Amino acid sequence: MKKVYTHENRMIVFNMKNVLQGEGIETVVVNEFAAGGAGDLPTFDTWPELWIEDETQLAQARSIVQEILSDDGSAARFCRKCGEQNEAAFRVCWNCSNALE
Ligand SMILES: [Zn+2]
User: Any idea which architecture 2-75 has in CATH?
Assistant: First the structure.
């Protein structure tokens, strides 16, 4: 397995997973609950990570992630519920899980 993405916010990692899944790329999230405890300051080591199962899809997965990350924000969607900015490719708000439509 290869790591394709990591972020301190697990909802953003899961959004990335959903986008890749929509492209037919299966991934698993590791460290999902590592950064949990109340009062704990998560370190980079315990950020949730997105790993790809089929390494033949690695290049495709990385280019999709890159495309999302290189978005300059012009296509960003703002959550109607909490007002947070979300990447255009995301389907649910990373902050409150509200559907972005
Ligand atoms: Zn929201």
Answer: 2-Layer Sandwich (3.30)
Those residues whose beta carbon sits under 5 angstroms from the ion ligand 1 are 79, 81-82, 84, 93, 95-96, 98
Ligand 1 centroid, distance to 55 Cα (angstroms) = 33
CA pair distance 91, 54, nearest whole angstrom: 24
- Rounded to the nearest angstrom, the distance between the alpha carbon of 12 and the centre of ligand 1 is 12
Pairwise CA distance, residues 73 & 50, whole Å = 22
Global model pTM greater than 0.85? no
Nearest to residue 19, comparing CAs of 47, 78, 61?
61
Segment 25-64, tens digit of pLDDT: 999 999 887 655 555 555 556 889 999 999 999 999 999 9
